[in-house]
Amino acid sequence: MNTDSGNVVKSGGISMHSAETSPLSGGSRMDDKQRRRRYFLYRWKDYGVGYLFMLPWMIGFAVLVAFPVGWSLFNSFNKVRITPEGFKFEWVGIDNYRRAFVEDNIYSIQLITYFQEMLLMIPLILIFSFFVSLLLNQKFPGRTLVRAVFFLPVIFATGQVLTELFVQGAGKLPFIEQYNLEGLVRENVGPRIAEPMLAVLSKAVIILWYSGVQILIFIAGFQTIPRTIYEAVRIDGASPWESFWKITLPAMVPFIGLNAVFTIVDLFTFPFNPVMDHVRANMFKPATGYGYASALAWIYFAIIIALLAIVLWITYRAAKGRREMR
Amino acid sequence: MKGDGLAARANEAISRLKQDSGHVLGSRKAQQVRKMLVGQHVNDGWIAKIVILLLLAVIGFLYLQPVFYMISTMLKTVSDLIDPVVQWIPRTVNWQNLSDAWRGLRYPEAFANTLTIALVCSVAQVCSCAVTGYALARLKFPGRNLAFFLIIVTFLIPPQITMIPLYAIYGKLGWLNTPLVFFIPAIFAQGLRGALFIIIFRQFFLTQPKALEEAAKIDGASSFRLFFRIMLPLARSACLVVFLFSFIWYWNMYYEPSMFLGKDFLPLSLRLNLMQEELMGNTAINFNAGFGKDPISEGPKMAAAFLIIMPPLIVYMITQRWFTEGIERTGLVE
């Protein structure tokens, strides 16, 4: 994203070089060497400050992220047993991964189901937050109050409270029961799609609660489109409808991508995520243990990364076309 | 010349059009009314405003419906809950649920625990993430881009992957069941969603003018002085946003405490699970465990949920303006 540091190093190299060969720099070779050393010292003093500022993060990353991640990867290729003396590892290669797909009939089903749900949830959240932020971006009295309301769920989207609400059926949209939408869905689409759809519908409101930050990002995104463009197309005779499709939406593509990424990451920790429950349950089962649970977590991680890559690629392509036009 | 003629003709046409429409509407006054209702462009008249407000009100109601459900259920007696006639407003307001929940959660103690975790961790996150974000945005050192890349990757690693090794590390260090398991990562910029906060700070510091830094350097300020005296005070709004967000997220955190904390030090979110046992001992309330709608435990549970979200709700009410404006201004979005 930022190539600043690379440039600086390069320019430093060039100036060093010129100091070495320039006849004006004069002096003996000894002098040159000294100068070079002093220059390096100076540079490193500069870098040192940077590393000093980064130190807390570097320690934290090494101990709390890099090491655990490495260990977990190692775990996933082992059968891990806990004995009174500590962990006992037994190398099994990719057996854990193979087992996850071949033997574990719960995991793959859960994975597919949750993935289907996610594919429904992501557009739902994106469209909802886009629509609401579009409305909130208009001028009307009481705007700040309404904004506060739509951002409110971020405050209490706690796993426990959400689960309670969901268990009691409060997460349903009221009109789903009124119009018997469940029956309608079941009749019109096959059971393969109906199940995840109903699962999403039964907690629709709670899913919408996950759009607080997205709404804010979209509103902030609208601010980046200059007012003057709208005035210009208005003079050219464009209706608000046209200016939305031709200007607002294309300009928002990067923000839609950003929000898609944020949504996917957010759904990692979604309290109704059966995959994570399964991973956690397997951690403490004596028959499977840490190694197997780690393998499950890594498979899930790989799938999510793939999903993120696809989203980023689509956004990049969509935004690239626009950039070239400019 | 030709242009002039065209412009004149266009003007004429416009004025004629205006006159015509004036005739159709009867008078100037009607025209004014029309302008007020429909607006010059469809989206700035009163009609549009009312439609938008109505839409938002309906969506907002659907959106907040679970909260209303929670509050109404919390105030109902068991007979009100069973009675299908009673929908939103309970016949008699029943405060018993709230006091049960207060006892069941051991509210004062659990509240103090949660507050300790949330406050200490958010302060630590603000400090460590600001320092890291500043280094990424303003200081030059080899490997800076790599560090930024790694930070983004950290954001994507699901907690379940690192949980087991972390559990082992914390166990070795004897930190399990103490709040240290949250303090230490926060101090080293690896706290809850720390990566996101680092990105916020980085984005903010990137937008600051370079001249500021140069001026301070010429005046002889060291990098540390520059950071603490000039940059950090400028980043007040970013600090506030990071503090508020991490406070709320630490308050609501459930997964990590359920892994690392045992019986001695419990935050509110875990107390909710234990509430049943807690109450069973000393009251006649008989909970049927967990699932399905169960009119007897429903009231106290909703009351407990309300008690848990109330403190952050109050914080939000006070700081609401900074929350919504902050994100827009910190340059999270570039």
TrEMBL record, chain A:
- Any idea where this protein resides? Cell membrane
Keyword annotations? Cell membrane, Membrane, Transmembrane, Transmembrane helix, Transport
Residues forming the ABC transmembrane type-1 domain are 111-311
Q: Report the domain of life of the source organism.
A: Bacteria
SUPFAM superfamilies, per database record: MetI-like
Q: Where are the transmembrane segments?
A: 47-71, 118-136, 148-167, 206-226, 247-270, 290-316
Name the CDD domains on file.
Answer: TM_PBP2 (cd06261)
Which sequence ranges form a coiled-coil region, renumbered to this chain?
none
Main subcellular location? membrane
What PROSITE patterns does this protein's entry cite?
Answer: ABC_TM1
InterPro entries attached here? MetI-like (IPR000515), MetI-like_sf (IPR035906), UgpAE/MalFG_permease (IPR050809)
Membrane topology reported for the UniProt record = Multi-pass membrane protein
Residue ranges, annotated region (Disordered): 1-30
Q: What is this protein called?
A: Sugar ABC transporter permease
TrEMBL record, chain B:
Q: Name one Pfam family in it.
A: BPD_transp_1
Record-linked SUPFAM superfamilies = MetI-like
Q: Which UniProt keywords apply?
A: Cell membrane, Membrane, Transmembrane, Transmembrane helix, Transport
- Mode of membrane association: Multi-pass membrane protein
Q: Does the keyword Transport apply?
A: yes
**Member of which family?**
Belongs to the binding-protein-dependent transport system permease family.
UniProt name for this protein = Carbohydrate ABC transporter permease
